[in-house]
Design goal:
Layout: H1 7-17, H2 22-31, E1 33-40, E2 56-58, E3 61-62, E4 69-74, H3 77-83, E5 90-94, H4 95-101, E6 107-109, E7 117-119, H5 121-127, E8 147-149, H6 156-166, E9 172-181, E10 190-197, H7 202-213, E11 224-228, H8 234-243, E12 248-249
Parallel strand pairs: 4-6, 10-11
Antiparallel strand pairs: 1-2, 1-4, 1-5, 3-4, 6-7, 8-9, 9-10, 9-12
Helix pairs in contact: 1-2, 6-7
Length: 256
């Protein structure tokens, strides 16, 4: 096994060992440069810098099962060299640039290695911030029937990723996990994350949604609702405080 040679590969190894580290890997991936097999459309030799709007030829491989095209890319030059038998031209470019160039095409990271990973177009759309999980506000009408409960089948990865993120924000004093169902609108239960603290939580919630949208956990809940205790619905706030033990509590705060 090749040892990691950069921050991206270190993040990938950690994510492979602990799925709760996956969002940190994806963040590092989007901030890093990667390697692909390819060259400028106009022949060039030696080391060069791509100019803006310069066309490139990106090498495609075929999937073994259905022979469909897939673009290989690599976390380092050593991973690229391990995957090929002969010298071939390659390019180093930001991950975001690769995703833009190959939009709609599946990609595979580090093929032929134990740290390989496939990216479908939908996965790439999430990473490019066209989130599949969207944050939108919802106001309950008066006299609306609301059923509240306790969640099932929620992985440790889900709560640990959120807890780690909340620990970096002083605004979040505690976080709770419950379920909510509004029969008049939806026959499914939604997972409900309650945040306790003071201040504007909009950006914190936006980033929290992005982090959990990158998790690969199989959960029975398709939708996650966020509530700010004592700022949103008072009945929901009271239910959480009276019935649910928080899964996260800030170090400088004690919950009684």
């Amino acid at each position: 096994m090749l040892l990691p040679v950069n921050n991206l590969e270190e993040a990938l190894h950690k994510a492979a060992a602990d799925h709760s580290k996956a969002p940190a890997f994806y963040e590092e991936l989007m901030e890093s440069k990667i390697f692909i097999l390819g060259k400028p459309e106009e022949e060039d030799t030696g080391k060069f810098t791509l100019e803006e709007e310069q066309a490139v030829i990106i090498q495609h491989w075929e999937r073994e099962d259905d022979k469909s095209p897939v673009v290989p890319f690599f976390t380092s030059l050593q991973m690229l060299q391990q995957a090929i038998d002969t010298d071939e031209p390659y390019l180093e470019l930001p991950t975001s640039s690769l995703f833009q160039l190959t939009m709609g095409v599946p990609l595979v990271l580090n093929p032929n290695s134990e740290f390989g990973m496939e990216f479908e177009p939908d996965d790439i759309a999430v990473l490019m911030d066209t989130d599949l999980m969207v944050n939108s506000e919802h106001l309950l009408e008066e006299q609306t029937e609301v059923l509240l409960g306790m969640p099932e089948n929620v992985s440790d990865s889900f709560t640990s990723v959120l807890a780690e993120y909340f620990s970096k924000h002083a605004l979040v004093e505690a976080a709770y996990l419950g379920t909510i169902q509004i029969p008049a609108e939806d026959d499914r239960e939604h997972l409900m994350v309650g945040l306790q603290g003071k201040g504007d939580f909009e950006k914190i919630i936006d980033t929290a949604i992005q982090k959990i949208s990158l998790l690969e956990d199989e959960m029975m809940y398709e939708t996650v609702d966020f509530y700010v205790i004592d700022q949103d619905d008072p009945d929901i706030s009271q239910y959480m405080l009276d019935n649910i033990t928080p899964f996260y509590v800030a170090e400088n705060r004690t919950v009684h």
